[in-house]
Amino acid sequence: METMKLLVTGAGGMLGQSLSACLESRGHDVVSVPKERLDVTNYSQCLEVIEEEAPDLIIHCGAFTKVDQAESEPALAYHINGYGTENLAVACNIFETPMLYFSSDYVFDGEQNQPYNPWDATRPLSVYGKSKLAGEKAIQRHLSRFYIVRTSWLYGPNGKNFVDTILSMADDRKTLRVVSDQIGTPTCTLSLSETVSDLIMTGRWGIYHGTDDGVTSWYDFAKEILRDRDNEIIPIATKDMPRPATRPKYSVLDKTTLINTIGRELPPWQESLNTYMQLHTGRKETAKK
Ligand SMILES: NC(=O)c1ccc[n+]([C@@H]2O[C@H](COP(=O)([O-])OP(=O)(O)OC[C@H]3O[C@@H](n4cnc5c(N)ncnc54)[C@H](OP(=O)(O)O)[C@@H]3O)[C@@H](O)[C@H]2O)c1
Fold it and tell me: pTM of the entire structure?
C-alpha cells in the first residue's frame, strides 16, 4: 500500500492525537507538530516548517475550538481559524502541498431540518462557525488540491469532551439536565481518524461531510452514555440553558459523498461510543447498539 509523509498541525489536540496514531498505524511517515512548533498565525513558521519537512499532505487539526469563548474573543477565533488557516494555505500553495482542513457542522444554521449536503448553503450562527467558514474559504481561494472535512460533536481520548463530562457529572450528582432540542451526530475521533485515513488515499479532492452514522439529541446521547447507571436525566430546552454561542438546532450532515468516495459505510454513533467507553473511560458500562 502506498504511504505518504503527512504533517499534522494541532497535534496536541484531541483529534490531532488520535489521527496521528491512526496514520502511523497505517505505515505513514507522520510528523505531528503541536502549536509550540507550528503556530499557524505565524506565517514565517508555516513556510519554514513546510520547507523543512516537505510533506506530501498537511492535515490541519489546529484550531480555536472554544465555541462559547469565541463570542467574547472573536478577534482571536478569526485570527487562528481564519487568518491562521489562510497562512497555511498560502504556504501550501507556494510549496504545491495539498491540505486537509477540518471544519464543522456549525457552518450551517440548522433551519433545514434534513441532513445537510456538502453543497448546501452555509449560514453560521456563531463566531466559531463563521471563523471555521472563513478557513474553508481561504483554502478554496489558495488551493486547488484540498480536502475539507466537516465533522460534528467530537469526543475521544485525550480531550475535554461531552462523554467524559457526562460520566464525571454522573459521579457527582444523581440528576442531570441535558438539552434535548439540538439534533446532530456524535462522532468519535477514533472512527473519524479511520475515515480520514481512507479518504486521503483517494486523491479525490473536495468538500466532505464526515461524522459517525445516525441522528440523536444531546439528551439521548447522554442517556446512551449512562444507560447502565441509575442517574435521572431530565430533558431541557436550549432556551432554559442559555449559552453565549447560538448552536444550530439541527446539524445532521449527509455523508453520501464521503461514503461513495471511500467505498464503505460509516459506523453507527452507538457502536463508536461503545468502543470508546470500553477502551478509554476505564468503565465497565457498555453502550448497546
Ligand atoms: N471538538 C468538536 O466537537 C469539533 C466539531 C467539529 C469540528 N471540529 C474541528 O476539528 C478539529 C480538531 O478539533 P479538536 O476537538 O481536536 O480540538 P482541540 O482538542 O481543541 O485541538 C485543537 C488544537 O489546536 C491547537 N491550536 C490552537 N491554536 C493554534 C494555532 N494558532 N496554531 C496551531 N495549533 C493551534 C490547540 O492547542 P492549545 O490547546 O494549546 O491551544 C490544540 O492542540 C478543529 O478544526 C475543530 O474546529 C471539532
Answer: 0.96
